[in-house]
Amino acid sequence: MRYAHTVERVRAAEESLMRRLPEGALMQRAAAGLAATCLQLLAGGAERGAGRRGRGSRRVYGSRVVLLVGSGDNGGDALFAGARLAARGVRVTAVLLAGERTHAAGSAALLGAGGVLTQDQAAGLAQLGRADLVVDGIVGIGGRGGLRDSALPYVRAAERAGVPVVAVDLPSGVDADTGEVAGAAVRATVTVTFGTHKPGLLVDPGAQYAGVVRLVEIGIEPGPAAVEALQHADVAGLLPRPTAESDKYRRGVVGIAAGSDRYPGAAVLAVSSALHGGAGAVRYAGPAAAEVVRAHPEVLVTQGGPKAAGRVQAWVVGPGLSDGPEAERTLEEALAAGVPVLVDADGLRLLARRGAAPRAELLLTPHAGEAVALLAGAGVEATREQVEGARIGYARRIAELYGCTVLLKGSTTVVAGPDPAAPVRVNPTGTPWLATAGSGDVLSGLAGSLLAAGLAPVDAGSVAAYLHGLAARTVGEGPVTAAEVAAALPAAWRGVTGAA
Ligand SMILES: NC(=O)C1=CN([C@@H]2O[C@H](COP(=O)(O)OP(=O)(O)OC[C@H]3O[C@@H](n4cnc5c(N)ncnc54)[C@H](OP(=O)(O)O)[C@@H]3O)[C@@H](O)[C@H]2O)[C@@H](O)CC1
Ligand SMILES: [K+]
C-alpha cells in the first residue's frame, strides 16, 4: 500500500522527531535526497525529460541548475541541495523570490559552496533560459492557494526552457491535502517528497503536475493515513481465489439489472465484464435479455425485474437503464433484495431523486456529473468543475450524505467509505484512454462480481478500478474499446496474482 498523510499529521510527526534530533538534521536528510535526484537527472537518468541540450548536459560538472527559492523551509531544502550540487561542480544560481525572508542558513551554505544568489528578475530569467535543470523550492506544505503572480514569470520561463523541473516536496501551487490547483502551478518532471506522500500528489489535478514522485524517507512517523493507493500485492491479497470446494454459489452470483430498449449495449458490456470478473455465475434482469444471451449463452436471463431473477449475492443496477417507472421499479427491487448493491449511471440519477437513505452495503459509482446530481439530491449544490477539482472531499461528502461507499470516477478514481476516519483510496492505474463509451459499464460489472464474491464495498470498488486501469493498459498504450477492456480483465487479473 502507498500511504499519504495530511499536512497536519506531517507537521506533528516532524515536531516530535525534531525534538530528538540535532537542529537542521531533517532538512539535511531532505536536501541529500533532493540533490541525489538532481544529480541523477543531470547525469541523464531514466526520468530525464525532453532535454533540448542533448548529450552536452549529461555531464554533471559544469552543468547549470537554477533554484527557485521562496520564503520558507521548502526554499531551505532547495538551497542546501543546491550547495551539495555546487560542491560537485554544478553552476548553481538561486533566484530568491522572497528577498530578506529567504532561509538564511541555506543561503549561506550555497554561497559557501560557490553558488550564486540573485533577486534580479532579468538576471533570473536569463539564467533560466540557460538552465539544464530547475528546482522548484517556491513553496511546500506551508503553501496556500495557487502560485502567486510574482512567481509566474519564472515558472513560465522554466516551462519554456524545456528542461527537467524537480519539485521540492510538492509542485508549488498544488494543495498538499486535496490536490486542488487554484490558478497556476509548477509542472514537475519529478517530485521529491519527504517523509510520506501528500494526498495532493496522488490525486488529480495535483497528480498531473507532480510527474514521477520519489519518496525520501526522513524518519518521521505520521500515524494514520488520509489517503492510500493499492499496489499489486494488496490487490492480489484481496482478489477471491476459488478453492477445491467452491461451487458457483460460493464463488458468488452477481445480478445485472441494466440496459433498456434504447441502450441494450450497456447490459451486454456489464454482463461481459461481470463474467470476466470472477463471479461464479451471472444473472441478467431486463429488456436486453435476448441481446445478452446471444452474446453470452452462459448467463441466466429474465425479461422481468430483479425480483424475478432468482437468488444473487449482489446486484448491479443502472447502466443504460434509462428513465421512467420501469427503471424506478428495477432500482427498488434491487435495493429490496437484501444483498450488496452497486448503483451506477441512470440508477444514480434515480437514486438522487429519492434522496439520501443511508445503507452501508451500497456502492455508488458516479462520474463527476452524476456526483453533482447525488449532491443535489441531498440538498448540496456543486458544479462539475468543483467536483473534479476536489475529488477526495466530494467523494467523502457523498459517502457521508448517503451513508455508503462512493467510487468517484475520473482522471483519478477515488473510493470513499462511510467511515470518515478511514483513508480514501485513490486508484494509481488509471489511463486517459479509459475515458471511452461503455467503460463505466465494464467497471460496474467487475465491481459487482467482486461484491458478489464477498469483498467489502470499498475493496470491491478499489480493486475493480485497479484491474480496470490495468486491463486498459494491457490492451496497449492507445485507443481501447470498452469490450476490449472487459476481455483483457483476466490478463490483468493474472498479471496481479502472478506478480504477487
Ligand atoms: N515537515 C517535515 O517533516 C519537513 C519539511 N521540510 C520542508 O519544509 C517545507 C515546509 O516549510 P514551511 O513550513 O517553512 O513552509 P513553506 O512550504 O516553505 O512555505 C513558507 C511560506 O510560503 C509562503 N506562501 C504560502 N503560500 C504561498 C504561495 N501560494 N506562493 C508563494 N508563497 C507562499 C508563506 O509565507 P507568506 O508569504 O504568506 O508570509 C509561507 O509561510 C516542506 O514542504 C519541506 O520542503 C524538510 O525540510 C524536512 C522535513
Ligand atoms: K515546491
UniProtKB/TrEMBL annotation:
AMP binds at residues 409-413, 440. InterPro entries: CARKD, Nnr, Ribokinase-like, YjeF_N_dom, YjeF_N_dom_sf. Keywords: ATP-binding, Isomerase, Lyase, Metal-binding, Multifunctional enzyme, NAD, NADP, Nucleotide-binding, Potassium. Its cofactor is Mg(2+); K(+). SUPFAM superfamilies: Ribokinase-like (SSF53613), YjeF N-terminal domain-like (SSF64153). Residues 231-496 form the YjeF C-terminal domain. (6S)-NADPHX binds at residues 73-77, 140-146, 169, 266, 320, 367, 441. In the N-terminal section; belongs to the NnrE/AIBP family. Belongs to the NnrE/AIBP family. Homotetramer. This is Bifunctional NAD(P)H-hydrate repair enzyme. It comes from Streptacidiphilus cavernicola. The gene is nnrD.
